[in-house]
Amino acid sequence: MPTGDRIGTAGEQGSPLLTDTHVHLNLKAYRKDRTEAIARAKAGGVGFIINVGFDLDTGRESIALAREHEFIRASVGLHPHGASEMDDDTFAQLSELASHASVVAVGETGLDYFYDNSPRPVQQQALQRQLQLARRHGRPLVVHNRDSEADMARLLAAETSGVRLVLHAFTGAPALL
User: Does the pTM exceed 0.85?
Assistant: First the structure.
């Protein structure tokens, strides 16, 4: 978060500001009423919105949206469904995107064994690389976990030293949490 931003401080009326940590306002479903959706969020007391990217294109779109609205921030990453796209070039582009001033998190990344759209070892490797990216840029990691508890617990226990996490799509047991 850029210097001076305070998430969770009192709003103008003395009420706490809310932060929506996971939206995809750049997606097609919001094209017709994006402006109205953003206005409704603001009117409803949302002080910050984090628009989450899940591939290179949506990461760029998230940054563009953050440039347009001072209370929107971006997250950039590669979702486990697209983990097969993670190569050195993609990683380099993600790293460049993560350095943008409006980017406050890396991800959405993680493991999704329910759909298995990418092979499990590939998902694990993509998650590990994005953990490194979050650590390098000092950003939290937005973690998607679906039906992958044992591997998720193992990877997070081994790799997350010094990295803050935002758990999203969490299907694990309280012990994993």
Answer: yes
